[in-house]
């Protein structure tokens, strides 16, 4: 199965960036947050980024229109019921994320893949609350998302090879470099960064 329609949950710093790079790659994106003001803020940040790209000669007005036409904002979780892939990019709270994925598991079609942008929470723990741990994976984007090329692809204990392959292909279509890492505290980038920060 190929991912064509993407749901991004969380319109903040990471979420709006993920929505932008996915839409730029031609995917249809539903950007969801809990309040309309958060959704609007995320969409306006995407628009501002594209305006700056036009000023720098890195994008055209036509390209901006096309990218924005691929993104729809919503506050309703139910609007994600038919997406092929959900990427969660909310704040780092395991209990809140677990509740969210439990709800998504009930709402989304059984073929939908789930990904979390977490940088610290074990993927296996999040996958365990769903009925589809084989379709669950970590996708840790680097900040700022439109600029940074690296994406950590984190397998949970039950993540299937098919899921990992699909997510890597999706990352590459967005012009990213996927690096597969094992599930564990902090994954690769944080294991490297945190000791450096501590030593600084």
Describe the structure.
It comes from marine sediment metagenome. This protein has 200 residues and is of the alpha/beta class. It has one domain: Rossmann fold (3-Layer(aba) Sandwich), CATH 3.40.50. Helices cover 43% and strands 20% of the residues. It contains seven helices and eight strands; from the N terminus they run E-H-E-H-H-E-E-H-E-H-E-E-H-E-H. Helix 1 (13-24) crosses helix 2. The termini are far apart.
Keywords, separated by commas or semicolons:
Rossmann fold, 43% helix, eight-stranded mixed sheet, 200 residues, single chain
Mean pLDDT: 93
User: Segments where pLDDT lies below 50 for 5+ residues?
Assistant: 190-198
Please indicate the percent range of residues in DSSP E strands (runs of 2 or more): 15-25%
Share of helix, binned: 40-55%
- Could you name the CATH class? Alpha Beta
> What are the secondary-structure elements, in order, as H or E?
EHEHHEEHEHEEHEH
CATH architectural label: 3-Layer(aba) Sandwich
> Count of helical segments?
7
Q: Report the sheet with the most strands, covering strand number, pairing sense and barrel closure.
A: 8 strands, mixed
Quote the CATH topology: Rossmann fold
C-alpha Rg (nearest Å): 16 Å
Q: Based on CA inertia axes, which overall geometry fits?
A: globular
- The total count of strands amounts to 8
How far is the N terminus from the C terminus?
46 Å
Oligomer kind: single chain
Domain 3-hydroxyacyl-CoA dehydrogenase NAD binding: 5-183
InterPro entries: 3-OHacyl-CoA_DH_NAD-bd, NAD(P)-bd_dom_sf
GO molecular function: 3-hydroxybutyryl-CoA dehydrogenase activity; NAD+ binding
Keywords: Oxidoreductase
